[in-house]
Records
---
Amino acid sequence: WSAVAPTSFTFSSEGTKTAYAWAKDAAGNVSTGRTASVTITLPDLTAPLVSAFTLPATSSSLTVPVSGLSASDARGVTGYLITESATPPAASAAGWSAVAPTSFTFSSEGTKTAYAWAKDAAGNVSTGRTASVTITLPDLTAPIVSIPSPISGAIVKGTITVTAGATDNIGVTRVELYVNGNLHASISSAPYSFSWNTAALANGAYNLIAKAYDAAGNIGQSTSVNVTVNNPVADVTPPTITFSSPTSKYVYGSSISISASAADNVAITKMELYVDGVLQLTTSASSINTRVSIAKGLHIILIKAYDAANNVNSSSKTVNRFF
């Protein structure tokens, strides 16, 4: 009781409330109560609590499933948000959802931490709850491979080095060289240099291609390099010799006329004339026209012809001088 009418009254809780006012006199008589009502709404200063937030340990996708995201609040949760930043989001920020999200998309692969947040109608934002995942995306990128040497259109001979270049977003495991579609050699580590012996091949056009592999089995292929093999052809053909004279094995007189010519698939470099094993004449021409003195009796006339590869051929005739 107060000797003066009170100017305020404190209720026990918020809500729609009814208060009763009473008065008394000196004799102790108490009035009938008079009522008045008020609806009390206290400010919401309590943030929600994120009680659970779970991600899988690993993922092969940037979009990761979310399980067990739940939050509670004294007056009710109105929004959920997942971020990669530990900085609390504003209640007015974009991306809030009225229901708990079932997945979250990360910006890149690797070991990642996500933060789950909840807010209420008063704009209170919870403390972030964390969960981590390791994301390893499938390798779908093939290596890039080229053949810088020899260049397309080159003329090659002997043993040459074919150089390939290969790069990959993760790593190259091997590089193969193909000649006319057939595997020539394989190298598992840089530098990718291949020895190619063209001398064992027929002269002509050849196609070179390099293939590069990575650990995921992706295959990169170079553009074709077309070269011409042009090795010197070994000359194994000896010259041919044609005797023009003497035409008979019987001769008369103290000397005889000797004529012969030689031909070769490349060129004649030397001819020699022997009589009875004794060298009579050497010439670089491809023919011999001369007279040689001989005594009575049997004589052997021998012609030898040589080419640049030192192939040699010989031809002989036996003659008999009577007088």
---
Amino acid sequence: SLPHSLSEILVTHRGEWWQKSESDLNHSVSIIIPLTKQDVGNLPKVNLEKIRAEFFDFDLFSYDSSDEILDTPLSALTATVFDTETTGLDPVGGDKLVSIGAVRLVNGKVREDQTFSHLINPGREISIESQKIHGITSDMVSDKPDSEKVLSDFHRFCSQETLVAHNAAFDMRFLELESTSVLFKQPVLDTLLLSSILHPNTKGHSVDDLAKRFNIPKETRHDALGDALMTARIFEKMIALLNKAGIKTVGDAIRASKESFYANLRY
């Protein structure tokens, strides 16, 4: 027999497991064990067309910000919660934005009267596979502005506010590559990372998992504004739990996020 149980190994190495599908007749599971820095540097990348990467090569923790913003209590935070839809999963390989949606959070509360939602002409065909996910066809965006125009408008909408997203590095990588006239350099909070800090021994940190956990009604999924609204409601619910955990300010949340094992993963 093994000297340690699987549970002991996962706790010791800050790992996590989950069943791949409730309908999986073989009851197969996935296991994540955090990588060392040396492992991360040597890890080969997977085919991004086959799996949505948890993180792209984007440093969420590199930002220009004043101490005043970092010292802002989460309960008093004004932020922009956003989501994107894209032609595919590989921004470096040529995939582009097709939609961006956002809602403002004021004093830690969702303001559904303050939203941003725009379709984007990606300048390329939208694959059938992507259309099946978000329902946006090439015809629907043929007369829409390009990403440069839309991201310039979005930059004005979010100004220097803190940004919030789920699996934020995915969205931020697209913003970084497609916005040449504006830079998004404000702090970014990721509800995926924060969920893994709040619930380290709970399986499942997807938007759907968190909506179920916080008893939040589902919006239209895989619609940028609908996903942004759901993420905003999740973050709103998280604030009280983060406070109880001693994570009270934007700076606290960023520092805690760096401790998440998800923050060190590359795919």
---
Amino acid sequence: MYRIAQESLHNTVKHVHASRVDVRLECDDDAITIDVRDDGDGFDPTGAFPGHMGLRSMRERAAKLGGITRIESTPGKGTHISVRLPV
């Protein structure tokens, strides 16, 4: 989860020109969840990003641990990345 959060924050700093980023970490009996939201440039999450491994590596890390990754973004409207891993 640490590496997923790290990559998400790195992408925010490097690519989206955000003025605000919120990170929330929650844990309950079933799962641990991290939510990262920014107010940056946003992007089309269905697009191809040749040479950029960040989003793919986040998804792969979560999947290897049985987790779920949700990426919501709209150009000009920021990004929300949520990852939920079973405990």
